[in-house]
Amino acid sequence: MISVSVIGHNEERSVRRCLESVRWAGEIVFVDCASTDETARIASEFTGKVYSRENNSNLNVNKQFGIDRCAGEWVLYIDPDEVVTEELKNEIIAAVGRSPSGISGYLIPRKNYYFGRFLRFGGKYPDRQLRLFRKNVGTGAFPTCSKSRIFTVRGKRNSCSRKVRGVRVLCPRLLRNF
Question: What are the two backbone dihedrals, phi and then psi, of residue 164, each rounded to the nearest 5 degrees?
């Protein structure tokens, strides 16, 4: 089974589109980080596994909390302003179905958007993110002791060729974190 984990804070404008794009997964886990809008209610339309947590400034704490609640052998982590395309969905399903036991995770090339425009130059594309990983072997984790956004796995990694269509609006400060 493939589980999808998402965290969000006041994401009512984007979370429906995100969760609709992963409705095919065997399980969706959503961690609401003290939203004051309709984020949690919208997430509950897609899953019964909606957890409420404080909005920790270290996002990795809540990301790892969500991952820890996933029951699937494989976990796909996405942000609430990202969308999984049909092509990527098909590639994920095929990759998980044929993955040898030595593969612990997959890098997924992400398309970033800045003020509505696709960033294809300046080293921002493809923005390969380790977002699909095997959970049951205990290899994947966000570092909760730091605010680094880097997700790590022990073992071999492979790459998906399809893109996650990110709809995020990035500010220059955040660009350094990718």
Answer: -90, 125
With contact defined as beta carbons under 8 Å apart, do 4 and 23 qualify? no
| End-to-end C-alpha distance for the chain, whole angstroms | 29
Cα 25 to Cα 19: distance, rounded to the nearest angstrom:
10
Q: Are strands 103-114 and 127-134 parallel, antiparallel or unpaired?
A: antiparallel
Backbone angles phi and psi of 78, in degrees to 5: -135, 155
| pLDDT higher at 175 or 163 | 163
Can you tell me the distance from the alpha carbon of 40 to that of 88, in angstroms, rounded to the nearest whole number? 26
CATH number for the 2-175 domain, one of 3.40.630.30, 3.40.50.620, 3.40.50.2300, 3.90.550.10? 3.90.550.10
Where in the chain are the domains?
Answer: 2-175
What pLDDT is recorded for position 163?
45
User: What are the backbone angles phi and psi of residue 134, rounded to the nearest 5°?
Assistant: -85, 120
Q: Which two tokens stand for residue 169?
A: 């609006």
The whole-model pTM stands at: 0.78
Q: What distance in Å separates the CA atoms of residue 164 and residue 43, rounded to the nearest whole number?
A: 20
Q: Reduce the DSSP state of residue 56 to 3 states and report it.
A: coil
